Queue: 2 jobs
Job 1
Amino acid sequence: MDDKEEKSMDVPAIKLINVNKEFPGVKALQNVSFDIDKGKTHCIVGENGAGKSTLMKILSGAYTPDSGDIIVDGEKASIKSPADSIRLGIGIVYQELSNFSNLTVAKNLFANNLPHKKGLIDYGKLNTDARKVLDNAGLTYIDETAAMKDISLGSQQMVEIAKLLSLDIKIMILDEPTSALTEVEINKLYSLIQELKEKGITIIYISHKLNEILYLADNITVLKDGNHVGTFKKTPETTKETLVRLMVGRDVAYDYKVGTSKIGEEILAVKNLTSGTTVRDVSFSLKRGEILGIAGLEGSGRTELLESIFGWRSVSQGEILINNKKVKINSPMDAKKNKLAFITKERKVQGLFLSLDVRKNIAAASTRRFRKKGLVNVGLMAENAKKYIDAMGIKVSGLNQLTMNLSGGNQQKVLLSMWLTADPDIILIDEPTRGVDVGAKAEIHNLLRDLTKEGKAIIIVSSEMPEIMASCDRILVMHEGQITGELSNAEATEEMIMKYASGV
Ligand SMILES: Nc1ncnc2c1ncn2[C@@H]1O[C@H](COP(=O)(O)OP(=O)(O)OP(=O)(O)O)[C@@H](O)[C@H]1O
Ligand SMILES: [Mg+2]
């Protein structure tokens, strides 16, 4: 290494100086200054709405800062568009996926430079090149000719990562990349990150999973309410508690109070429920006051089971009893009439009305309740929305903030509020705290526990084992569409759940 090269390793990959960004009613970033070292994994943590994604969007050219300097590799950069950012060697995979879902994987990979022959798209070359890009990233199982919308959310995420790898990227930004990935995909991503680091690429990584941060990080930056709290090297002394304290400003109590609600009568009975090959002969019962967890690997039929109960997916066999009465649920409408609610994991596609404001979203599943003599009672809607904003600490600039402008975790809380407003008796929740920060996770779990004290019953599907074990009174484990095990909270260990989940 000559002197010049040595010096260039000392220059940070990115130096941020007093970066500011304001949205109507929100100071998203205030005088944020810190360095991102070259060739390191730099993790950024902070509560929902802390400003993490905003800062990344400034680096990717999606937003321009109001003021401040960004120095890339020692030179002052002017990032006014995504093209500017790519020219500087910065690539990003956004928190909310932004692909062309009707186009094939191959077309998504080469969206900006489709190969042509005689004025037409050269599909042969396109698909061969796409295959190479996928194979290079270890994604041999993804079909380059499939439409994006037909592959899993996790695979879509991996395609976007592979796309970045095919470009000449020096800095790779991953904004909550693992929230939709399976265990296998997560491990693949970790090894990709290791390879990239060995090539000297700088990784900027955002996540609410603190275990993941402690595993991956060389350096960590904490943001809070748009302010830079600190940037430090991860050492063996860095613990989850240290991070939580810096992020939240206090200790978070992980006291989920399992077993504190009175278990009452059976409210739901599912008998021999079958839907195609994804849900096979499933039977179980749920009692008032109970939080029932459904664990299992991705693809084990957990989500499909909830969809079948909610009338979203056609059922070929079996019956559902609510309060000991047989009910017919052929559509979500039928389900709602039977006082069921379903909070899906794909809030962007199913669930939220992104172009409507927060107040209307929270009222959206109970419109009749907010109507008086044919008129919408805005005051009542506002009052209800405020109740949930306080209870869950939803970060909004006002009741009329558009839902699409909320941070990811805050969108999740709005979706939850929408369904709780409908006052269901039985609540089905798929990944209740995906993308939600540690403090809010505890708040959501406490809120669910309080609901069971009113005699409601809850089913939680989660891929986060600690979440299932900490919050559920009883746990069912699924494998290949069937229930392979049942455990009480006291009996459950990660090993036992894994054993049933893998079908041994
Ligand atoms: N386009 C926008 N218009 C208005 N407000 C916005 C916009 N984008 C972000 N905000 C606001 O800026 C703040 C920071 O949001 P940001 O998305 O950066 O948070 P985050 O740290 O990424 O949170 P999360 O962990 O939930 O993803 C929030 O209060 C958010 O509502
Ligand atoms: Mg974000």
Job 2
Amino acid sequence: MSSHFTIQIEGLQKRYGDRTVLDVESLSLESGFSYALVGPNGSGKSTLIRMLSGVEATTAGRLGVKGDATRESLAVGYMPQKSYVFGFSVFRNVALALEGSARARGEVEARVREALEAVGMAGMADNRGSGLSGGEAQRVALARMLVQDLDVLLLDEPTASMDIAGTMLVEEALRAYRERTGCLVLTATHAPSQARRISERAVMLSAGRVVEHGPTDAVLTNPSSDAGREFLSYWAV
Ligand SMILES: Nc1ncnc2c1ncn2[C@@H]1O[C@H](COP(=O)(O)OP(=O)(O)OP(=O)(O)O)[C@@H](O)[C@H]1O
Ligand SMILES: [Mg+2]
């Protein structure tokens, strides 16, 4: 289970051709906290999350882990912005995440049922993944995360396709998961109201740079940058 560690980002850059889409000079993410990652379309949220997950190579800079863990020892879960669901059953779509672990079949089954219950999909365990709605697919993709024991959970707009009841339900599931595991969570979201509900700290990106970083309330109510004020001017928080 989670030990104390800090993910340290230094001089991290991502370039596509001659365009720099991410340029993070310095940012630390500390175990035990939930972070909201906010910022407008194209500001680099998904790029940063993909780099943290390891699926995207860095152009320059360093992503290190300090404390009682190493990058290799951390169990990292990544839920992409577009949820992927396989054609087979919802149950198997979630059980997939436990494949290769030495768990007994009964335990796998119990965990999968519990994760599906937590996201409100228990009644659809036998449905085929291919027939799911966008919001249902997102719930299944999230259950695939919650069924695991993770140290770091990276969620890219996990409720973007969900209705308000689904959003509240999975936010509660995330809270329970954090309480149980102590997992560090980083969630990209477009809704400051959601950021406030689910995180203690917030990071705001603008054009690939960190323009705000601190306690969520402070970032959302008293941004110090012009970009932060501009972004939040559209929201009544
Ligand atoms: N494979 C790629 N090739 C070229 N440009 C890319 C590629 N992937 C991302 N980009 C560009 O990088 C920038 C950052 O994209 P990213 O997906 O990280 O933004 P985002 O903050 O997640 O936006 P959104 O809120 O729309 O999800 C965008 O301008 C995007 O067009
Ligand atoms: Mg994105």
